[in-house]
Design brief:
Structural class: mainly alpha
Shape: rod-shaped
Oligomer: single chain
Number of domains: 1
Length: about 90
């Protein structure tokens, strides 16, 4: 379950970000500008892309941690409910 959440989130975020970065870089390469301007813009896009990727990774970790906490809480609540009901049944006999 844990790996499934991370895989699903990663499979959505990473290709989207990579596609956006590649598309922007290609757009700049084919734009009618001087080489120095294009290289500077590509560098800026790469830096911004890295920052966005790091941010997305942090959000993914945060989502994973929250989901893991929720699942563990649900498991603990289920165990407690089971033990409580088991004790009630044992007391009744």
């Amino acid at each position: 379950m844990k790996e499934e959440l991370v895989t699903k989130e990663r499979s959505i975020v990473v290709p989207f970000l990579v596609g956006g970065i590649v598309g922007a870089a290609l757009g700049l390469l084919f734009a009618p500008k001087a080489g120095r301007e294009v290289r500077k813009q590509i560098k800026d896009i790469a830096v911004n892309g890295k920052e966005k990727l790091v941010s997305a990774a942090g959000k993914t970790r945060e989502f994973y941690t929250e989901a893991l906490t929720a699942v563990n809480s649900a498991i603990d609540a289920g165990k407690q409910a089971y033990l409580h009901e088991r004790d009630k049944v044992e007391m009744a006999h």
